[in-house]
């Protein structure tokens, strides 16, 4: 089993409470709070003003083609299939949108489906994750890169290429985030890895830039434990080396970075101040909304003041909470953090994490209730506190948090995101409404797309992209997402259609509601794709524009459904 951040931080955090800070910390808090605020160090870029998600991309399964050829991060003993006695994960993913699953040694799910898991090595998995990032407003992904000079190295190299491909395909940004935990020869090897391998990815238009510079993060400097043994001078050398390569350098640092106590080594303040941005780690340190309020008052406020005074961007963590520890409080815990980080004036927000099923802190789609987890596994689902939450709830919540960060939603302590799409959100507003089209072939007219019959379908004129399909909702109303379906028959092979959505109040002037993106329809998972709008659209007419289809040279839809939540 590999090293995880939580496993190496437990001892460092032990004995330090949020409610009772030491006298040293309180004194430093007072000093920093009176330091005076400066303007933000950097303008909006791919980090500042954006939601960044930590992306592990470190799950593999035997038979997926990965060089590691193991149950990488899915089990305690990677050579054996995950099971109740060989388990390291704390939550079960919702597998319905993955093209391929790998059979585990767990019993079937409580709904009778086989207990399968995804592999990050499959490009479709990474594409699915980045499609979710696009749909739910996650701007940038920080790909975690641990010591690559081990048996994991070739698989990690391949994951960087897969992330780059997905980011390019779905219009997201990405950057390399080195986690130096346990990396003995870090000082020389991290430089060689950047020059020899990772810097090549900065040639991609999808590689994140801030202040015109490629972004790199180094997580782990200054932690007061044996897995992070370097002195301040060694760490400063690495920071300045990356800056000398023209990079914008983020530091993933202990939450006590400013005071030099508890989880932080003393004497590191000048080293921390050498970073362009600071992102203090909070996983394992907070677990309730009250904890977040305490951190806001005693840590975030003086942190922000210190960063402002030194021209450093502040990118604090926001986490959904550990499902297994029952911390999430159906989103209230996470929203309180969004509220606190926005009101403190943070330049950006880092989500811990996108796909961390091992720590239970993932925002990626997760089993909604017990029917979606293996029988007798002991795992909790998202409804662990009795409140039903949709599998995409924490993605939707992150999207709303991002809108509040960007000023698109007013600052509010009241969570605006419902745990489930309920009420009017379950009514298909397009059902049997009038339609229009660019054209169709044979008998496959546009009315088939709203007739509530999955066996009939609209098919545009062939070999003549772009093509469009439109529905008239009858009156101007708020819309939030569309669901597109193809016939469920297995004869409809998996295909990806490139679709954009535009809207109009008069049927004449249309504006973009959701930009063009590829949506995969897989008969194994219902041949369904959902397009969640970046923001609610008040429209009467919704138009789908098709520009590509990998399965047939035409736009194809059996059901065009519209919902207001």
TrEMBL record:
Origin species: Rugosimonospora africana
Domain of life according to the entry: Bacteria
Extent of the signal sequence: 1-27
Protein name: Lectin
Domain F5/8 type C: 413-565
Keywords: Signal
Record-linked Pfam families: F5_F8_type_C (PF00754)
């Amino acid at each position: 089993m590999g090293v995880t951040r939580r496993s190496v931080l437990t001892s460092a955090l032990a004995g330090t409470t949020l409610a009772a800070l030491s006298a040293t910390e309180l004194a430093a808090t007072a000093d920093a709070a009176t330091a005076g605020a400066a303007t933000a160090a950097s303008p909006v870029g791919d980090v500042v003003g954006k939601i960044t998600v930590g992306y592990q991309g470190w799950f593999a399964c035997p038979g997926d083609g990965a060089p590691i050829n193991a149950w990488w991060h899915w089990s305690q003993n990677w050579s054996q299939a995950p099971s109740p006695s060989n388990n390291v994960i704390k939550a079960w993913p919702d597998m319905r949108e993955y093209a391929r699953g790998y059979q585990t040694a767990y019993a079937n799910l409580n709904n009778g489906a086989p207990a399968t898991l995804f592999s990050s090595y499959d490009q479709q998995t990474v594409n699915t994750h980045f499609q979710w990032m696009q749909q739910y407003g996650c701007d940038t992904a920080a790909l975690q890169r641990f010591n690559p000079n081990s048996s994991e190295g070739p698989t990690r190299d391949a994951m960087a290429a897969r992330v780059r491909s997905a980011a390019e395909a779905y219009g997201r940004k990405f950057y390399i985030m080195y986690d130096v935990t346990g990396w003995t020869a870090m000082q020389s090897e991290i430089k060689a890895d950047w020059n020899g391998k990772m810097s090549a990815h900065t040639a991609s238009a999808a590689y994140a830039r801030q202040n015109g510079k490629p972004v790199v993060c180094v997580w782990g400097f200054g932690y007061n434990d044996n897995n992070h043994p370097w002195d301040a001078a060694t760490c400063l050398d690495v920071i300045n080396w990356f800056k000398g390569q023209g990079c914008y350098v983020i530091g993933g640092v202990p939450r006590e970075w400013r005071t030099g106590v508890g989880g932080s080594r003393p004497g590191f303040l000048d080293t921390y101040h050498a970073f362009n941005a600071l992102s203090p780690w909070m996983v394992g340190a907070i677990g309730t909304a009250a904890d977040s309020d305490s951190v806001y008052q005693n840590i975030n406020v003086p942190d922000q003041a210190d960063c402002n005074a030194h021209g450093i961007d502040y990118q604090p963590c926001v986490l959904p909470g550990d499902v297994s520890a029952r911390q999430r409080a159906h989103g209230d815990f996470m929203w309180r953090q969004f509220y606190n980080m926005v009101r403190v004036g943070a330049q950006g927000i880092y989500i811990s994490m996108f796909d961390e099923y091992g720590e239970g802190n993932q925002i990626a789609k997760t089993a909604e209730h017990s029917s979606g987890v293996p029988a007798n596994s002991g795992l909790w689902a998202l409804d662990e506190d009795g409140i039903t939450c949709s599998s995409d709830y924490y993605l939707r919540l992150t999207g709303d948090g991002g809108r509040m960060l960007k000023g698109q939603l007013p600052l509010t302590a009241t969570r605006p995101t419902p745990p489930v799409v309920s009420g009017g959100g379950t009514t298909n507003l397009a059902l049997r409404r009038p339609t229009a089209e660019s054209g169709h072939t044979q008998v496959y007219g546009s009315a088939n797309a709203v007739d509530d019959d999955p066996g009939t379908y609209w098919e545009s004129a062939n070999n003549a992209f772009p093509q469009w399909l439109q529905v008239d909702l009858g009156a101007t109303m708020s819309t939030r997402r569309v669901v597109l379906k193809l016939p469920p028959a297995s004869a409809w092979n998996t295909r990806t259609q490139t679709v954009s959505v535009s809207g109009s109040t008069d049927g004449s002037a249309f504006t973009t509601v959701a930009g063009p993106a590829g949506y995969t329809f897989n008969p194994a998972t219902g041949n369904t794709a959902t397009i969640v709008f970046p923001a609610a659209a008040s429209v009467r007419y919704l138009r789908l524009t098709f520009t590509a289809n990998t399965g047939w040279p035409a736009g194809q839809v059996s059901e065009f459904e519209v919902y207001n939540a």
